Amino acid sequence: MEQQLAKQNKESSGTAMVVIAALLFACKGTLIKYIYSLGAGVADVMILRLLFSMPAYLWVALRHWPAKHNRPKISQWIGVMLCGICGYYIASYFDMLGLQTISAGLERIILYTFPAFVVIFSAWLFKKSLSPLLYFYIAVSYVGLFMVFYADIRVQPASSTAAIIQGSLYVLISAIAFAGYVIGSEHFMRSMSSAIFTAVAMLAAGIVMSLHYALFNSPAHLLQLSSAVYGWCLLTAIAFTVMPAFMMSAGIRKIGSAKAGGIGMVGPLATLVIAASVLGETITLLQIAGFIVVVFAIQRVHKI
Questions:
Q1: Residue 107 in contact with residue 32, Cβ under 8 Å?
Q2: Residue 17 to residues 160, 207, 244: CA-CA distances in angstroms?
Q3: For 5-29, b where at least 16 C-beta lie within 10 A, e where not — what string?
Q4: Rounded distance between C-alpha atoms, residue 255 and residue 12, angstroms
Q5: What is the pLDDT of residues 81-136, one digit of tens each?
Q6: Residue 260 burial (C-beta neighbours within 10 Å; 0-12, 13-18, 19+)
Q7: What single-letter DSSP state applies at residue 71?
Q8: What is d(CA 124, CA 145) in angstroms, rounded to the nearest whole number?
Q9: Looking at the whole model, is its pTM more than 0.85?
Q10: CB-CB neighbours of 279 under 10 Å
Q11: Quick one: which of 97, 175, 210, 257 has the fewest CB in 10 Å?
Q12: How far apart are CA 109 and CA 98, in angstroms?
């Protein structure tokens, strides 16, 4: 009885963490599009967000650093760092590239398809067969995605169709990269705490992004940005990056990546509402219908 109660409490707390993390992540795309309007570029937002958040991750890493007898192997540390680079450098970079030309609502819907990639990649890695019904629902999810995409073209006259297609493909790459991060995170958190995993993963992403910025941008350019850009990037780093990253990792550790992906459905809906309220993005019936189709299909994928 006590074990069952403990399991229920664990699942309840894990679910709550994933829901809150999804809602915080939902705000991120809208805020980043607003920061773009203040004159910042993709690389500027990424480097400032990571630089502002890295002290928090460094503090957590030092605080939770495992004892020598319980320390993961070097190969595991490398795996954690690769997960961070995949999920918070590659995925974040392509996500922000896409946000330049597509709406925050479409961006979040595309990202929400990452659980389908989690299922497919997990099956390939662990050599599990996939049923035709699974492929059917994945196809249905992309029918819904196309509905939202078509609606985005109609309500964004400032962006060309080619630009929206390119932006959508960037975000799709982001979804695929994030799926790899989710699979890796569940694997490596079996041998370490979610706190140390997240801290090391994010520090690795921050170091790689710093190298990226130094190679392709002028560091002096950061000093020319407005104080508003710094303030909003600081808020993005703490409230919409650090907090949800730790909460999502802790939630995945408690309930698993499959359940976490399903519960994360609150994110796309929240993004549609937030983007409409803050950025004035139009919500059409076609978008709502496409959203329902995507959510329904992804939920079915989880249950097969």
A1: no
A2: 38, 27, 8
A3: eeeeeeeeebbebbbbbbbbbbbbb
A4: 9
A5: 999 999 989 999 999 999 888 888 888 888 888 878 888 888 888 777 778 888 89
A6: buried
A7: P
A8: 24
A9: no
A10: 17
A11: 210
A12: 12
Place of tokens 């690769």: 82
- For 110, 171, 282, 284, the CA distances from 106, given in Å and listed in that order, are 6, 9, 11, 12
> What tokens does 129 get?
């067969």
Return d(Cα 92, Cα 245) in angstroms, integer.
Answer: 12
- Contact partners, residue 258, CB within 8 Å, separation at least 6: 115, 118, 119, 302
What is the rounded CA–CA span in Å between residue 46 and residue 207? 12
Residue-wise DSSP of 171-233: HHHHHHHHHHHHHHHHHHTTSS-HHHHHHHHHHHHHHHHHHHHHHHS-GGGGGGS-HHHHHHH
The torsion of the CA quartet 66, 72, 73, 78, rounded to 10 degrees, works out to -100
Number of H helices, E strands in the chain: 14, 0
DSSP string of 12-39, one letter each residue: HHHHHHHHHHHHHHHHHHHHHHHHHHTT
pLDDT for position 209: 92
Q: Any idea what the Cα angle at residue 102 is, between residues 294 and 150, rounded to 5°?
A: 50
